[in-house]
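Appendix B, Record 12. Input sequence as logged:
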Amino acid sequence: MKTKRCLHLRSLVVVVVVMMMMMMMATVSMGDRVQAKLVACLGASNTYGYGLANRSAECYPAQMARILRAFDPTWEVRNFGVNGTCVLQKGTLPYIRQGACSEALACHPDIVVIQLGGNDSVAANWVHKADFLVDFLVLIDAFARLPSRPRIYVQFPPPFLPNPYGLNDNVVRSEINPLIAQLPAFRDVQIIDTYIPLKEARNLLQADGVHLTTEGAGYLAEIVGSTILGMRGTPDFTGDGKVDTQDLLRMIASWGRNDPSVDIAPPPFGDGIVDRKDLEVLMRYWGQEMGLLACWALDEAEGLVAFDSAGGNDGTLVGSPVWQPAAGKIGGALQFGDVGACVRTPFVRSPSEGAWHRVAFVWDGSNRILCVDDVEVIRDTQSSLAPSAGGLNIGAGSTLAPGTFWSGLIDDVRIYNRAVKLLSK
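Logged structural output:
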């Protein structure tokens, strides 16, 4: 009888990317990396989810809730958006006087996310622009005084196309956003730049040129959610998961200006100008992959330990897998000998033997998805994953049952706490 072989690793994971010669089923579980909190989302129609077919599930707070719960299922996000509201207390519909604001205060949130200012750009409201900064500070203070002492984030309003509502993108860009950028000078708040990212993707707006599509709301949820989780604030300005020339060019484009989206030094809020200090921080991250929790290159030539170069979760070889220093797709690989088919379904494309394939397994908060060579091959509905301290087995199924042991080479196993783009995208 052949010896069962597996690689046992102490890891709590969200995404696994594996380069291998055929296909394997990877079991992933999620750790308690962040402390779950109650998040109150304050704002106008884009917070509320105006125009979305299934608003309760598609608005950005709902989509952000799924992102946060991917890290801890006890996160709670509440939507306190009210259509048409503004910051200005002399405006047409001041947010601070709405019942939703009172409800948000009453829930004593741990985190407050504010997206207001777009409706203030309407001419009838902006005549009171001299009050904008003071009125915004009054709103912030109402939450800052809560016993829960919430962390407060303020978003820039998104960009607008010509629209029937009178919202003025020029006013937002040249007057409102610069005023919002001053808020950290007066209060302990963090600015989230959602203007520039959405400006580069205006196809994410509905036909009225103002309100986000479901995809746009999802993009906003990713930006805000990753900020809350502490995964932003690094110089990955393009959001592609790595710090490279594109991020450097993005910084150069804002050199000498006050651009909060790339003003990252000194942390956490910068100093109001993009300069040498920001460049020094960028270079400290140069070439790094953001959100990489663990990386087993499997390039060792001998020994019983597979080293994790990212997270220190070194693995111990069990059984007798064989190091193959020259046989990997990237450097070396680890040879497993027992034959075991882990996916038995006609709906799954079976890669050919003798060739390398990129296999990715991800849970997005609602579904488990398996991709082979950047093609989705199967998914199922999974609203939550039970946390586990039992670790991850590479080269074997989670139960170590007969028939779950991999036969073939495995190379370059990676775990991320962020979304990983398909190579073909």
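The first strand starts at residue 6 and ends at 9.
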